[in-house]
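pinging the channel bc i need a second pair of eyes. not urgent but kinda urgent?? the chain im working w is below, pasted from the shared doc
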Amino acid sequence: MTEPTADKQHGSHPRHSLAPLLNAPVRLSVVAALAAVDKAEFGFVRDLVEVTDSALSKQVSALEEAGWVSVTKGRIGRRPRTWLSLTTEGRAVYERHLAALRAIAAVD
């Protein structure tokens, strides 16, 4: 009997490809929302994900610190605005995370 090929440190189960930072439902929701667009205004994401400004800010900070979300501040007229976007790395991590979830769900 042969053993499945696996990374000896992490194993072969798809769960090893999950990004632990995306295990939090709000962070996963934010990244999923940003994956569909080039950039989105903070308020739009807040309303879409149905969280408070404070909760979204905290989760975005964690994603920004990981290098997965870029935060850009500016103004429209006199009103300050904040835009969020996925970085290239963030998009790749999200795609790997989704692929792992699909693989886990497909296991018989």
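so The CA atoms of residues 84 and 98 lie 20 Å apart. and The helical segments are 25-35, 42-49, 53-65, 88-106. — does that match what u expected or am i reading it wrong
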